Structure to design on (408 residues):
């Protein structure tokens, strides 16, 4: 039994093992440690608080079912975040969320506008403003941006998860960043 | 190298995804081109900021919902763990869940107490429909639930007209509070079905109905 809540040194792996034996206090500690990151990830992906809470709940229930299969080979956070991403993507599929299609080449028109627009650059990127701007991105750009720039996934991985080519992932990421820059500049 | 090419592949450059020679050409262009340099800085800042965005916090009742579902679905195999949560924790969680509502808190505890007494005393003695059908969510495990439910519905019907004048933000906040309460009620009901004699759970159900009602009062 892992029952001592003051023992912060207890590893995620030990807590996972205890949880898989039905120790709810261990599972609660896992929840406490990671729920804000899981919730934030869900919230950024769906941009809706109620939906994000539902998804977080589903993720943790799924986690409880699968936790015995965590072998400690990768970091627990990586494992949990992958589980979360897959769950949210499945939710998108069920909901019929369509990701916008992009070609692997840039959209010349859009780029031309940028050159002529000549908008001033923000002095710094306000985190809250960026958080809001992410919510305004179209779902496909948003997903790639979250996975790559926030969660640190590689393009190959993103390609595998989303079923797109590495080139598409790269091009969507670039467009997401460009769009975010526009959104941030508009707010200044 | 042309500006257009630079602007199209700048993210690759920032993420060190360009072959060495191309990266050199890139760097050379950036030194001599103010516009592209500006863009590079902006994208780099976005990329950096993305790494330490603020974390968001879900409502306090979420853990309760999760643990209830785990229990209700019979996923716990260890008999010692079938009732994992301490009573103090449960109560604390409900208290905390209160604090997470977006609408202003009840004017005073007195108002709640009055509501509780009103709902509780009338309900308990008037109707006891203890025998229940098996339609999961609609199963009434709290004796006076159907009464509480219809009282709320009546109040809510009278209330709906007012909602039309609300702006989207207010409406969303209200709807999300209400749906959170509904979910907590579902979770509580599920748990009560497994432990029908649990006085604390019964009390929680009543509190949740009082909260729902208070939500309408405050939103006026
Ligand atoms: Zn240039």
């Amino acid at each position: 039994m892992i029952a001592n809540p003051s023992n912060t040194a207890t590893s995620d792996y030990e807590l996972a093992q205890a949880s898989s034996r039905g120790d709810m206090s261990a599972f609660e500690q896992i929840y406490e440690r990671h729920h804000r990151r899981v919730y934030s990830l869900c919230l950024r992906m769906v941009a809706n608080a109620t939906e994000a809470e539902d998804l977080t709940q589903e993720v943790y229930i799924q986690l409880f079912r699968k936790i015995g299969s965590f072998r400690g080979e990768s970091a627990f956070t990586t494992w949990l975040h992958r589980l979360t991403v897959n769950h949210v993507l499945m939710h998108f599929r069920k909901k019929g969320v369509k990701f916008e299609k992009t070609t692997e080449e840039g959209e010349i028109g859009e780029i031309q506008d940028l050159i002529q627009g000549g908008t001033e650059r923000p002095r710094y990127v306000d985190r809250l403003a960026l958080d809001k701007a992410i919510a305004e991105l179209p779902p496909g750009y948003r997903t790639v941006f979250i996975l790559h720039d926030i969660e640190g996934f590689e393009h190959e991985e993103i390609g595998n998860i989303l079923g797109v080519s590495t080139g598409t992932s790269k091009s969507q990421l670039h467009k997401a960043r460009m769009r975010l820059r526009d959104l941030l500049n508009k707010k200044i | 190298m042309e500006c257009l090419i630079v602007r199209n592949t700048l993210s690759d450059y920032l993420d060190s995804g360009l072959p060495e020679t191309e990266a050199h050409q890139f760097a050379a262009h950036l030194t001599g081109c103010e516009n592209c340099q500006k863009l590079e800085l902006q994208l780099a800042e976005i990329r950096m900021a993305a790494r330490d965005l603020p974390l968001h916090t879900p409502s306090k009742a979420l853990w309760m919902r999760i643990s209830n579902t785990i229990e209700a679905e019979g996923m716990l195999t260890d008999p010692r763990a079938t009732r994992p949560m301490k009573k103090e924790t449960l109560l604390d969680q409900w208290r905390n869940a209160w604090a997470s509502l977006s609408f202003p808190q009840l004017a005073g505890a007195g108002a709640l107490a009055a509501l509780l007494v009103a709902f509780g005393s009338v309900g308990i003695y008037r109707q006891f429909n203890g025998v229940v059908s098996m339609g999961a969510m609609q199963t009434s495990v709290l004796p006076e639930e159907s009464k509480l439910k219809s009282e709320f519905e009546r109040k809510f019907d009278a209330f709906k007209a007012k909602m039309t004048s609300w702006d989207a933000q207010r409406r969303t906040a209200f709807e999300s509070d209400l749906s959170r309460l509904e979910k907590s009620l579902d979770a509580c009901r599920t748990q009560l079905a497994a432990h029908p004699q649990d006085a604390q759970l019964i009390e929680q159900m009543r509190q949740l109905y009082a909260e729902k009602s208070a939500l309408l009062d405050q939103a006026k």
Summary: Confidence is low (pLDDT under 50) at residues 78-91, 98-139 of chain B. Chain B touches chain A through 50 residues (CB under 8 Å).
